[in-house]
From TrEMBL:
Primary localisation category: membrane
Organism: Candidatus Galacturonatibacter soehngenii
Designated name of the protein: Xylose transport system permease protein XylH
The keyword Glycoprotein is assigned to this record: no
First and last residue of the signal peptide: none
A GO term for molecular function: transmembrane transporter activity
Transmembrane segments: 12-30, 42-60, 67-85, 91-114, 121-147, 167-186, 207-225, 231-248, 282-301, 321-347
Amino acid sequence: MDKIKGILKKYTMVLVLILVFILFSIGTGGKMLLPANVNNLIAQNAYVFVLATGMLLCILTGGNIDLSVGSVVCFVGAIGGTLMVNQKVPVLLAIVVMLVVGLVIGAWQGYWIAFKRIPPFIVTLAGMFVFRGLSNVILNGLTIAPMPNSYLNLFNTYVPDIFGGNGFNITCMLVGILTCIIYAVLQIKSRNDRAKKGYQMEPVGNMIGKTVVICIAILAFSFKLSQHKGIPTVLIWVVVTILIYSYITSKTTTGRYFYAVGGNEKATKLSGINTNMVYFKAYLNMAFLASVAGMITIARLNSANPTAGTNYEMDAIGSCFIGGASAYGGIGTVPGVIIGATLMGVINLGMNIMGVDANYQKVVKGLVLLAAVIFDVSTKKKEA
C-alpha cells in the first residue's frame, strides 16, 4: 500500500494530465484527438514551454518569480518586427539583436535583485510596466506585419518529409521511433551507471513501466503529427530548450546551486557558493528565454503588436507550480514543468474547442493553480 501511495504521489500530475486529456476528448466528441488540434497544442503553447523552463530557475531560488516576462516578450518582438519589417535588417542580424536585448534586460534586472537585494517581485513588477510602455513607444501603438518569409521558415513552418509520404509524414514517425529507442537506451545506461556507483535504484518493473508509457505517448504524439503536416519547426526550438535546461538543472554544479539556494541560502553561502551570482544567472536566463519566446510569438502571430505577451508570465508561473515546483523554492524539475505546461495547454485547447467563455477559462485555470499550490503546501506539512 505504501508503495502504491509513493507511486501515486510521484506521478500525481501525470495521472491528472491523462485524466484531463481523456475528459476533454470525451467532452469534445473526439475533436481533441484530431491531428490539427494536436498540432495546435504545440503551436499555441510553445511560448509557455520556453518561459516556464526559465521561470523554474527563478522559483528554485526561493519561490521567486519574474512578472516582467510577458512585457519583455512584447518588447523584444517589437524591436525584432521594427528591424525586419521597417528597417529591412537581415533576419539573422535581427535575431542576434533580439537575443542581446534579452540578455541586457536580464543583466539589468538581475543586478538589482542579486547585488542590491531589491525583492524580485518589485524589480520585475517595475519591468512589467517599463517594457510594456517601451513596446508601445517603439510600435507607436500600431501593429507591424507581416514578418519576412525567411524568418517564418525558422519558427512557423514544418520539417519537410524527406521520404515524400502522401498524406502521412514518414519522417515525423521515424523521428518518434528513433526518440523512443534513444530514450530507452539512456534509461538502461543511467541504471547501469547507478548500479556501478552503488546508488539506490528504483525497481526494474517501475523503470520498464515508465519507459513503456513514455514511449507509447511519444509514438501516439508522432502519429498524430504525421497525419497533419509533420514536425513543426517551433517544436524543435522547444525540445532543444528543454533538453539544454534539463541537463543544466540535473547534471551540472551550476544547476544544483539553484536548488541549494532555494533549500537554505545561508548554508549555501557559508559553503563558499556565490549566491548573488546564482540569483543573477536565474534572471539573466529568464530574460534570455523571454527573448526566445518573443521570437516565437511574433512568428506565430506573423506580426508585432502592443498587446503581445499579455498574461504570459501567469501561464509560465502556473505551469511551474502545477508541474511540482515548490512555492518555497528548492524543489522542481524541467520535466515536471513541461507536464504542468502541457496540462495548461490541454485545458486551454479543450475549453476553446468546447466554446467555453474566456472568463470561465480564467476561473478554471486559477482554480487549477490554487489546487496545485494547496497540494504542495499540504504535502510539506505532512512530511514535517
